Amino acid sequence: VVVLGIPSDIGVRANFGKSGCATLWAAARAKFLAMQDNAALRGESLLVLGEIAVEDVMRKAATLDATRSADLTVLHALVCEVDERVAAVAQEIVNSGKLLVAVGGGHENAFGIIKGLSKATSLGVSCINIDAHADLRQDAGRHSGNAFSAARREKFLERYCVVGLQEPFVNDAMWKQLCNEKDLRAITLEKLLGLFPFGRVWPHAPHIVAMEEAAKFAKKRPLALEMDLDAITGVAASAPTTAGLAVEEVREMLRYIGARRDVSTFHICEGIADETDSRGVGALTALLMSDVIKTVLARRAK
């Protein structure tokens, strides 16, 4: 397993969102490295590689204002610069046969990870994304709201399933796209809650049934697993929710996929941590990292 930090949230700013998720990597790294070395997870199976070097682009972005057209154009270009750096490192890690666990920054960084996975495998890949938002926007310029549409446009992403999507956050064009394109699938939070007005009522443990459906939809392609912390109720994130998935549900969902599919990359993002991790975002991230790592390693050892 190779653990990699991506301390950049330029795409969130370019999407007119709340900055600060560049802090997640440092907080999660500290909590992850403080975990015990025991039979459940041995430190010798892990390489904490470090972080993508983004200090220079973050400095360039620091004084830019997304509400000014010229500054927004520069922010989009800086996101593309980070994309290339992430993709190059992700490709090398996947080529080495290791599980890539990437932490931190905005969800724009999913594009570079998916591109690296696709380049390493020479295939269009599948992605399962646990997220309150689809991030399939079609507007010009790279930002945190269009990582997956950009990856599809560039032919890196073949099949995409978002789980936990909240219906009020989906515009009409995107809704039609999710319903009509065979390589896209959305399992909304409302459907999970049994509130969806069409289709079947979910049976017991709907979040697990959802992940079973997502796993089947992804088919046998290289798999990128994505976790946006804004899908979880009460987590400090760039777009926090008061009515999302529970931590326990998300842990079970991630472990389900890790145990049943050969996950190539796992990316967790959008959390905002302070220096002392007083809100526990870094600790939660470290816990979710360990859940995926343990289940993937156990599956690969069989």
Task: Note poorly predicted spans.
Answer: none
Q: Percent of residues in beta strands?
A: 15-25%
Order of helices and strands: EHHEHHEHEHEHEHHEHEH
**Terminus-to-terminus distance:** 16 Å
Average pLDDT = 95
Molecular shape: globular
Largest sheet: 8 strands, parallel
User: For the CA atoms, what is the radius of gyration?
Assistant: 18 Å
| Helix fraction by DSSP (H/I, runs of at least 4) | 40-55%
> How are the strands of the biggest sheet laid out side by side?
2-1-3-8-7-4-5-6
Q: How many distinct beta strands?
A: 8
Number of helices: 11
> Structural class given helices, strands, pairing?
alpha/beta
Explained architecture:
The protein has 302 residues and is of the alpha/beta class. It has 11 helices and 8 strands. An 8-stranded parallel sheet has the order 2-1-3-8-7-4-5-6, with helices on both faces. α10 (247-260) links the parallel β7 (223-228) and β8. The model has no long low-confidence stretch (mean pLDDT 95).
Keywords:
302 residues, 11 helices, 43% helix
Layout of secondary structure:
Layout lengths: L1 E4 L4 H5 L9 H10 L13 E5 L3 H8 L6 H27 L4 E4 L6 H12 L3 E6 L16 H7 L3 E9 L6 H9 L3 E5 H4 L13 H13 L4 E6 L18 H14 L2 E7 L11 H21 L1
Parallel strand pairs: 1-2, 1-3, 3-8, 4-5, 4-7, 5-6, 7-8
Helix pairs in contact: 2-11, 3-4, 4-5, 5-6, 9-10, 10-11
How would you summarize what this structure contains?
The chain has 302 residues and is α/β, with parallel strands linked by helices. It contains 11 helices and 8 strands.
